[in-house]
Amino acid sequence: MAQMQLSAEKREIAWTVLGFGITALVFQGAAWSYPQGADTIWLVGAATLVAVGVLGARDVGRMQREGAAA
């Protein structure tokens, strides 16, 4: 049986989306379990989601540059 092969760039995008989704679920669970602090939890969560997005974009860009250089 042949395995599906994804390019390095697509793998980085998939990992970024997965990390973004899991991070959002963690903060959603935290805000749900502690409604009194939901505003603060979502504020910290938004900053964390921005960081996940920026780091993911950096990795995707690195893969694109390495692919173009090869």
List segments where confidence is low: pLDDT < 50 over at least 5 consecutive residues.
none
Mass-distribution shape:
elongated
Helix fraction by DSSP (H/I, runs of at least 4): over 70%
SSE class? mainly alpha
Number of DSSP E strands: 0
How many domains make up the 3D coordinates? 1
Count of discrete alpha- or pi-helical segments spanning 4 or more residues: 2
Give the percentage of residues in beta strands: under 5%
What's the end-to-end separation, in Å? Answer: 29 Å
Major sheet description? none
Keywords: Membrane, Transmembrane, Transmembrane helix
Transmembrane segments: 12-34, 40-57
Structural notes for this entry:
It is a single chain. With 70 residues, the chain is mostly helical. The protein has one domain (8-69). It is 83% helix and 0% strand. The chain is built from 2 helices and no strands. The longest helix is centred in the C-terminal third of the chain and has 32 residues, at 38-69. It is elongated. The model has no long low-confidence stretch (mean pLDDT 91).
